[in-house]
Amino acid sequence: MLQDPQHGHSGKWLKTPVGWARANIWYEKLGAPPTPGTWQEALSILVWVGRQEQQVAATRAVAQASIKDTEKEARKAFENYLGAMFPYREKVEQKAKENQQELLRRWTGVGPIRLSTQYRVDREAQRREEQRQRGEKLVERDAWKAGFVTPSTASSPTPGRAIQPAQRRKS
């Protein structure tokens, strides 16, 4: 198995987007055939074979698409072409799927969803509002007792008409 020349570890680094790109860049810059038996030769062969697979898959996808009544075969040929063009595609898609599953596992592992209203009662504000309303009622009651307003004008005065002092009630 070849080792990643930059990181020094073995693995399927040609099946990663960065690995495949690096190998192709190295292959493009190669001036002369590498020395037989070296890792450079093995890498050159792997890149060359991968590029040949890409060309064959592209030709097959175009040919299959031009034949009528072969939609399934054309779709399969195109999938093969994508696999040859992007050898790391399956690995990346599998990793994304695993990440989504792990995220879903963590999210559902929290427990049941509890719903509550968005409106949160501020007890102190509610108490102040009740005091204010009580105070208004007391002022209104005292004004009525003093004879400044009548009960009907205290609660809803007629718009545009000034409140007239009421006649004093006889007690």
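the 2nd protein, sequnce then structure:
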Amino acid sequence: MSKLFTENQGQVVGLKLGEGALPGSVVLHSGEGTGGDKFGAASDTLIITSVNLGLSVNHQFTRSLGSSIYLYVFGDDFGDLQVSGLAFSSGTKASDCGLGASTGQTGVDGVLEFYNKNKTSKIAGSKVPQVTLQIGEGNPFIGFLLGMKLDMSDPDKRISRFSFLIRTLPDVTALP
């Protein structure tokens, strides 16, 4: 059985496929589609650890006189997407665990660079920056990067936690 955090501070053990990890991938891209820069793709200091996705229907319930209730549906609503992960300092490398190649950039630098480059307020002319989250082979979610949180509360292990707040666009292809 693998230990995720060993007794030596700042050391991480990675799990590979075939050793209890689930197959699949989650990739965050800058821009619409999968042609943009991949977040943390060439880095040994960043890993995505969780994705929280909230989707809902745009609707309204209306009561009328008597006992009738009417439901009006207006298609899908915007989705809420939170992408979270770990950012390692330059002294704690995920490549030691088989998770990437070295770039020399710290994980915190990579998180801040991706946010500053792709945040929604970085409008260039009439083009609003978008990001795409690709889950597995299909299922791309296109949205706008609205916020970021960075938690550096574990300096002994030199590991920071980050999360990106993204609002996804509704699926308009499902409309009649």
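Helices lie at 107-118. The longest strand covers residues 138-154.
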